[in-house]
Structures are given as structure tokens and as C-alpha cells.
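User: My collaborator sent over this chain with a note saying "see what the structure looks like." That's all I know about it. Can you take a look?
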Amino acid sequence: MTGQANNINLPAGTSGQIVTGEGATSPPGFTNATAVGGYILLSTKTASGSASIDFTSVITSAYNMYRIYIVGLIPATNSTQLYMNTSNNNSSWNTGAGAYNYIYFANSTTPTGAVSSTHMIMTPAVANATYYNYFVVDLVIPSQSQMYAWWRGMGNAITNIQGGGTDLSGAAVNAVQFIMSSGNITAGTFTMYGFTS
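Assistant: Without extra context I'll predict from the sequence alone. Here is the result:
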């Protein structure tokens, strides 16, 4: 009889797996969710008067791209800039001369940037009012000898910001830090995902 379905008893998979099709003549199987294209949640951190937000022991060669969502950022100090720093050893941050190149556009077609900077500067001055700031940050091939970053966002007086930067350490990056140019981070949620293709 055409169109008839065959009932099968599928064994239980394990935590972190999804069901996959194995072809027209084979029963379904299981595979790890990380083996399927898409974003995999790795870590979430919430700022509360925090000196910085650090993602350590999360970035590995398992993913070629990482995405970080920053939601509701409020700096403690008015008119400060958001910085991103990198590490090659999960502890000390690259903040010496010549550590980064960066450029960003904020409400303008005129770029702001620097070559051989001590920080990857992501924004102009950010207000510490009750306005919320939102950003999406992509880190590309951090496990190689040069990591690239792109970001976009909006908030308070920043209606549109786009930027990018390069880590110039010449070594694999295994940690990133978000920190204000002065003062703490009053609030904000920072969520990191790994991307599999």
C-alpha cells in the first residue's frame, strides 16, 4: 500500500543530541547538536557594577566564528567608551602599544579609528542614563594568528554604529574582555555563541 508509514521504536539519544534523517531506507539517528550548522550557546554573563566582562576558557578551535550579544549596556560613568580586549593565554589582556587596529562609524559617514591602538575601541562616548545600548559582535577565526571582529549596535544617542577591528598579537585568541574606558559596567547581559557551518 503506497503512502503507508512504518512505525519504529527509536532508542533514546543522549543530552545535547538531535534526531537526524539517515536516508529513505534507514531509520532516524542521532547527532550532537554542535555538529549541525547554527549558533550554540556557550556562556552568558550579567554585569552588575562589574569592572569588566571577561569570556575566558570559552574560545577554542571548535568554532570558526563566535557571536556576542550585548543587551542593555549601561556604563557607571557618563560619556565613556566601550572597549574590547583580547588574550592569548586566558588571563593577561593585550593592552600594549600596537595591539589592535579598529574603525567605526557612528551616526556619520566619517570614520573614527586608529592603527596600532592599545584597545579595540567600539563606540564613541556612551551615556550612563537610563537609555539602553545594544550590540552584536562577531569574532572570526580567533584560533588563527589574526582575529577579526565586526560589530553593530544602537542606543542612547547612538542610533547606528558599525565597526570592525583586528587583533595584532600574531597568536590565537582564546579570551575576550569588554570594559569601559573609565568606571564600571552598571548593567547589561553579554551572551556568547559559537557558530558551526
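A starting point for your reply to your collaborator: DSSP finds no helices and 14 strands in the chain.
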